[in-house]
Amino acid sequence: MNNETVDVLKNFSSINQNILFEEGNKLRTMSTMKNILAEAEISEHIPKEFGIYDLNELLGVLSLSKNPDINLDHESYLKVNGKNSS
């Protein structure tokens, strides 16, 4: 996941801590009060739909690695791969 996408997700986390990643290259979020809607087109392709309950927690995990990659091979969880940031 590139820095641009991570920056978008950081912005979205201030709107809503939950997010549904949909297949394609667009990210969307809506505030819980449904009065703020945000959409961003990203350079990466999301291969399949998956949800994140706590976006800030995911961002914390992504910050631990250089060039993190989200692996969606498992049905019940996702795996973040990346180089150690030492």
Automatic annotation (TrEMBL):
SUPFAM superfamilies documented for this protein: DNA clamp
Query: Domain DNA polymerase processivity factor: where?
Result: 5-71
- What does UniProt give as the signal peptide span? none
Q: Which Pfam families match?
A: DNA_PPF
What biological process terms from GO does the record include?
Answer: DNA replication
Do you know which InterPro entries this protein is assigned to?
A: DNA_clamp_sf, DNA_pol_proc_fac
Q: What is this protein called?
A: DNA polymerase processivity factor domain-containing protein
Organism expressing this protein natively: marine metagenome
